[in-house]
Amino acid sequence: MGWLCVGLLADAWILRDFIVIGLSLANRPDVVAMLPTIETSELIALVLSLLGLDAQQTAEKIKGVARQ
Fold this sequence. Notes:
The longest helix is centred in the first third of the chain and has 24 residues, at 2-25. The chain is an all-alpha fold. It has three helices and no strands. The chain has one domain (2-63). It has helices at 2-25, 29-34, 40-63. The model has no long low-confidence stretch (mean pLDDT 88). The two termini are 23 Å apart.
């Protein structure tokens, strides 16, 4: 689940820009207008909650109270 969110964030912030540049160089503004947008605020909330759960699990392992 985490890697899916990271991939979608990379698509929204990095890959989409390269796709737009490539399509602009190919003189295809009609295709650029049809590209879907990804709502990144929800993805960031999901990634941060997953990181929080992982940090909690790590803290439990360090304290020695984690379930086996």
